[in-house]
Amino acid sequence: MTLRRLPDFLLFTLCSLLLTGCSMKSIVVSSLGGFLDDAFIAVNEESDLQIAERSIASNLKLLDAMLKTKPNDEHLLLLASQGYAGYALGFVEDENQFRAKELYLRAKNYAQKILLEKKSFQNGLDGSVENFQTALNQSSSDDVPAIFWTALSWGSYAYLDLTNPDAIASLPKIEAMMKFVAEHDSTYYFSGANFFLGALYGSRPAMLGGDMNKSKQYFESALRINKGKFLLTQFYYAKYYAVQTQNQELFEQLLSTVENSSLDIFPEQKLTNAIAKKKAAILRSKINDLF
Q1: Considering the entire predicted model, what is its pTM?
Q2: Which of 11, 57, 72, 203 lies 20 to 30 Å from 80, alpha-carbon distance?
Q3: Which of 118, 114, 117 has the alpha carbon at shortest distance from 150?
Q4: d(CA 73, CA 113)
C-alpha cells in the first residue's frame, strides 16, 4: 500500500523544512529516501486497517510536499501513485466512489508524469489507440512500473465511471498498457497485470469486449505466479468472472479462500490481504443480488 504514519510533530517539522530554502529542502528530501522505503515495507506488514488508514493519509501529504521539491523524481512519483491508488482501493471506494475517483486520478497523474518524459508518450496519450500502441512499442521493461501504475489507477478510475463515454473510450489504451506489462514482466506486483486483465475481460459481456475464456486464463496465470497468496486475485476472480458467468459455486469457493486464509500466508502483504478480506465480506453480502 504506502507509508506508515510519522509522529505528528515529526511530520510538521519535516513539512516546515520543505518550505525553506532550496538547498535545505533537497537535503531533507534526499535524507528521507531510505526511510520511505523502510516505511513502505512496514505498512505493508500492518494487519490493523484502522492503524493503516490513519497512517497512510498523513504520509501521502508528506510525499506531495517532497514532490514539490523534486517533481520529477521517479521513485517518489511511483510511491505517490501506489500510495494514492492503495488508499483509494482499501479505504475509500467502497464508501465514496466520487472521492475514490479523485484519488485514482491523482495516482494516475503521478505515474503518468514519468511516462510523459518521453515524447512518444506525449503524442500517444492524446492520440488514437494505434498511436498509443506505437508509443508502447518503443518502451522497454524499465518502463513496466510506470506503465503498470498508470494503467491500474486509470483503469480503477474508469471502472467507477462507466457511464462516462470518456472512461469507456480509455479502456483500449488501459488494456494495451496492461498487456505490455504482462508480456514484459508477468510477475510484477504479484502478477497484477494478469489479474487486472482477468477483471477487464470478465467484467463485460462479449458484445462489449468481454471474453470469459481470456478472463479465466489471466486469473489462473496470476494465481500460478503469486501462488494464491495475494488474495485480491481471488477477490477479483469472484467479483468479475464468477459473477459474469453466473458460477455461484466458484464465487463462494473463491470468497471462502479469501476469508479463511491466514494473513500469515503472505507476511509482507498483510495489509493488502486484510483489505481483500474486508472486500470479500462486502461482496458476499450482495450474493442474493448477484445470482
Answers
A1: 0.88
A2: 203
A3: 114
A4: 10
